[in-house]
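Have a close read of this protein, sequence plus structure tokens, and explain what the tokens say about the fold. Thanks in advance:
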Amino acid sequence: MPEEIPTPPPQPPTADTPPPTPPVAAATPPTAAPPYAYAPPYGAPYAQAAPYAPPSPYPVYSQPPRRRHSAWFWVSILGGSLAAVALLFTLMVWSIVKSVSGDSSSSIDGLGGGSNIGVIDITGVILDADKIDTQLRKFGDDSSIKAIILHINSPGGGAAASQEIYNEVVRVRHEKNKPIVASVESVGASGAYYIASGCDKIYANNASVVGSIGVIMEWTNYGDLLKWAKLKSVVIHAGTLKDAGDPTREMTPEEQAYFQSVVDNMYGQFVHDVATGRHTTDDKIRPLATGQVWTGQQSLPLGLIDKVGGFRVALMDTASSVGIKGEPTIARPASDKRGLLAALSDDSDSLFPNPSKLLDQAPGFYFMWK
């Protein structure tokens, strides 16, 4: 064990002894500054400043103060909205009134001094007679309409519908003493020719197709499809021919003769009405009633039309025949435009078909060229 050396006691200070030096605190090692530390340039008061953030690579734009609109701006917005609503309401009311009244778009009593020619378009397959009959009655009762032209471009359609329009044409001609002329554009066949034959005159272009005097009855037999799907049709009826024309089975000879007699009867009506309208006899029309068509050029010598010419020729000849000099004024029925309002106000069956109509498989009789 080492020997301890005693510490000498402190000596009292003398005049020649220098004063003791105060103890010096241990130096604190400097702290390493962060890579982006900010050195305050103004001394101690700024020593606690936040560290310097590196500049952003994307420019910073200051947002301008939001502009406040004046009261007149909001007044103009409100006024414009009210005006738009009022205009929409006015258009709706006008559309309803026009659809209810059903007035002609240009047929107005006294227009042009009563020198108007009414024009009714008959286009496409004829399945309904109400629209055409209504237009014929309106033009027939309108004193400003001096004559009517049926502008035809149709292959025909339903037998009953075609015959109904034919009868209305004849009635207006005789009761209202108003000439009605047919102008065939491209096709005026079968039921459409049936209607034309009731007019005073028939015009057609050289390449127009007219004729097809005949009757057709048809339906689709889907019995084999039911057998393939392993379905069976069950029918209970009273009367031998009550289910004649059932599309799920073949026709019997009795049913064949039955339907042929109905078609023959309609055929005889067709031939007779055409002969009456063309001021001839059934015997002269029957050889032409084979269901075939002829061009306008071929049909003129056969007596099926009165003159080769288009709509313009028919218009000017008709105007001259009723004493209209110069260019006649054409009046057409109001267009039947189907909009959202009309669709919403229509019968619900047009929007949502009735499932019961899927069962409507009855055979149809047609005056139609195919």
